[in-house]
Write a structure and sequence with these properties.
CATH architecture of the largest domain: Alpha-Beta Barrel
Binding site for acetyl-CoA: 118, 125-126, 255, 292, 520
Binding site for glyoxylate: 319, 411, 436-439
Domain Malate synthase G alpha-beta insertion: 158-188
Radius of gyration: 26 Å
Strand content: 15-25%
Organism: Novosphingobium panipatense
CATH topology of the largest domain: TIM Barrel
Distance between the termini: 14 Å
Shape: globular
Function: Involved in the glycolate utilization. Catalyzes the condensation and subsequent hydrolysis of acetyl-coenzyme A (acetyl-CoA) and glyoxylate to form malate and CoA.
Helix content: 40-55%
Length: 701
């Protein structure tokens, strides 16, 4: 039984109450009694509105389901379909011309272009690695990955052949982005003066070397003859350090398994540690005990002797939970659970208020802003709700209006189709929009679940709507003034061990005009930063037409498999692929509480997986089952065979609990079955309700 305390009629978990009252409120001089009274009033006002928005989602989905069922077997006429969606209010009128009015935005978001990390809040070591990924060693990134087209390192120690290849590639990179007035970086000798072809690129000196700028990003060339690399280098250069992860999203949502007050307090405590600047983590590696903490700032000395502080850390967003889920950490007067997104907004903002008031070791926002990413919003009504909620939180915490900035995840179909109206609903606080293939695909399948069977999962990436979605996002953002004020972002590269492939493909993101994109690791951030040196995003935007927005016909094209008859082998192959990915993720979520990790796919390639990937796999299987492409017996056959494969892939994990043969006792396997066989009835196809229920059973057991 949870120990609870009464706070203005709210039944608050005692541990959460202690955390808030002892660690969050005193530094910002907030009276606990007044705070909880304000929270109770806020929840009383917003919880019913939150529930009404979810009811509205269900009502729209029921109308769409009925429309498709009533036209079963008939081709979809786009004009008729769009007219229907407008009639029921799924599509809303476009707002008139407007420009966002967001102010006080840090340059990492507004005027710089570079990589973005997303990191689970419950893993302190990962949090610190991500926060410290503002600067990354290009030499290390090349030496330790397949990004460099050269023979891999040989032996356990330093391989001078591999090292020479890294150094040569580094010199070639410098020649491209900060060329010398004469000659090449490769021919630079010790003690020679560095004269640039474009002198304005030289910013001055750091504690370790020279600092340069290209396309708004800094590059540090480190000179240190005391190191093995520097001692053998003709110019004494020991490293090239790139400004890499400009921003990091600290995630309380898709990448974590947080189901109760214990989990939420751990999450909030890590966020507080990052904001205060005192988060540390000790861990064992290679037989040694290591300690990780936040990186200190750097100092730049300009040619005229003036010093400037350079942030040593990535600028932090915090991703709150969406509108759907509730959490037992706080019970309302009627006994129901608090909407988790409301709780997140209040507590993460109260923590961040310490930063706004200058009470932290390093500081996060130099502009006095709090950056919150809000996921899984469906359409402008829900964006307007978030705007009003943030107003109320600012009033509760006595913060100036629009201190709380919002990032709108463009990852639900109703948001994509009404993106301009969504931006308008938060136009004075928006700092971020992005495309997310994974959740957007899951919502695509669920919204049109009864329209017919979908094409195979891999083929969806080539669908008509995907190209329109990616292009519309940037074009609409530019049309409404996001350039120079906010981020327009792109999605994740999911394969952290395939950096060469990432380098070949991910340059496409800045070429679209997006000024950030997600990467799976600090190393990937360092490598992806090179793309923003190759592509001047803000210069590119000047030649892009903000009027060139693809129409809704392409965006709303449903990826149906009209007239396709797959062979039994093809059906089995597709089911196996979905089942393996689903089980590999769910077993860690349920049994170990791991919400994001590198999960081997069916070909044993490690992919970064979170709930968004799971949503696609479960919804795709549910769709094929609903339309008779496969039988329940075929699905169960795939689930059982893939359970054995996943068991084998995790055999070296001492904490792993096998699923194969434990069909009734493995809660993870039963959860995976529910995600498929109950997939049609899940709200918007989300996986959270079932995952949370099964994880709570596991924790209770």
């Amino acid at each position: 039984m949870t120990d609870r305390v009464d706070r203005s009629g709210l039944q608050v978990d005692a541990g959460l109450a202690r955390f808030v009252e002892e660690q969050v409120l005193p530094p910002i001089a907030q009276d606990a009694g007044a705070f909880w009274k304000g929270v109770a009033g806020l929840v009383a006002a917003f919880a019913p509105r939150n529930r009404a928005l979810l009811d509205r989602r269900d009502a729209l989905q029921s109308r769409i389901d009925a429309w498709h069922v009533g036209r079963a077997g008939k081709p979809i006429d786009h004009a008729e379909y769009e007219s229907f969606l407008r009639e029921i209010g799924y599509l809303v009128p476009e707002p008139g011309a407007f420009t966002i009015g967001t102010q006080n935005v840090d340059p990492e978001i507004a005027t710089m272009a570079g990589p973005q990390l997303v990191v689970p809040v419950l893993n302190a070591r990962f949090l610190l690695n991500a926060a410290n990924a503002r600067w990354g060693s290009l030499y290390d990134a090349w030496y330790g990955t397949d990004a460099l087209d050269a023979a891999p390192a040989q032996g356990p120690g330093y391989d001078p052949v591999r090292g020479a290849a890294v150094i040569a590639a580094g010199r070639a990179f410098l020649d491209r982005v900060v060329p010398l007035k004469a000659g090449s970086w490769a021919s630079l000798k010790n003690g020679e003066t560095v004269e640039l072809a474009h002198p304005a690129q030289g910013l001055g000196t750091t504690e370790k070397g020279l600092l340069f700028s290209n396309n708004g990003l800094r590059i540090e060339v480190v000179f240190d003859r005391s190191t093995p690399v520097g001692s053998s280098d003709a110019a004494g250069i020991s490293d090239i350090v790139l400004e890499a992860a400009l921003t990091t999203i600290v995630d309380l949502e898709d990448s974590v398994a947080a189901v109760d007050a214990q989990d939420k307090v751990a999450a909030y405590a890590n966020w507080l540690g990052l904001i205060r600047g005192d988060l540390t983590e000790t861990f064992e590696k290679g037989g040694s005990t290591l300690r990780r903490e936040l990186a200190a700032d750097r100092t730049l000395t300009s040619p005229d002797g003036e010093t400037t502080r350079l942030s040593g850390r990535s600028l932090l967003f915090v991703r709150n939970v969406g509108h759907l889920m509730t959490n037992p950490a706080i019970l309302l007067p009627d006994g129901s659970e608090i909407p988790e997104g409301i709780m997140d907004a209040v507590i993460t903002s109260a923590i961040s208020a310490q930063d706004v008031r200058g009470l932290t070791r390093y500081g996060n926002s130099r502009e006095g802003s709090i950056y919150i990413v809000k996921p899984k919003m469906h359409g402008p009504e829900e964006c307007a709700f978030t705007n009003a909620l943030f107003d109320a939180v600012e009033d509760l915490l006595q913060l100036p209006r629009n201190t709380l900035k919002v990032g709108v995840m463009d990852e639900e179909r109703r948001t994509s189709a009404n993106l301009a109206a969504c931006i308008h609903a938060v136009k004075d606080r928006i700092v971020f929009i992005n495309t997310g293939f994974l959740d957007r695909t899951g919502d695509e399948i669920h919204t049109s679940m009864r329209a017919g069977p979908m094409i195979r999962k891999g083929a969806i990436k080539g669908s008509t709507w995907i190209a329109a979605y990616e292009k519309r996002n940037v074009a609409i953002g530019l049309r409404h003034g996001l350039s120079g004020v906010a981020q327009i972002g792109k999605g994740m590269w999911a394969a952290p061990d395939r950096m060469r492939e990432m380098m070949e493909q991910k340059i496409g993101h800045p070429r679209t005009g997006a000024n950030t994109a997600w990467v799976p690791s600090p190393t990937a951030a360092t490598l992806h930063a090179m793309h923003y040196h190759e592509v001047d995003v803000f210069g590119l935007r000047q030649g892009m037409s903000a009027d060139d927005v693809p129409g809704l016909e392409q965006l709303l094209a449903i990826p149906l498999a009209d007239g396709v008859n797959w062979s039994e082998e093809e059906v089995r192959e597709e089911l196996d692929n979905n089942a393996q990915g689903l089980l590999g993720y769910v077993v860690r979520w349920i049994d170990q509480g791991v919400g994001c990790s590198k999960v081997p796919d069916i070909d044993d390639v490690g992919l970064m997986e979170d709930r968004a990937t799971l949503r696609i796999s479960s919804q795709h299987m549910a769709n094929w089952l609903l339309h008779g492409v496969c039988s329940q017996e075929q699905v169960m056959d795939s689930l059982k065979r893939m359970a054995a494969k996943v068991d084998q892939q995790n055999a070296a994990d001492p904490l792993y609990e096998p699923m194969a043969g434990n069909w009734e006792t493995s809660l993870a396997f039963r959860a995976a079955c529910d995600l498929v066989f109950k997939g049609v009835e899940q709200p918007n196809g989300y996986t959270e309700p079932l995952l949370h229920a099964w994880r709570l059973k596991k924790k209770a057991a």
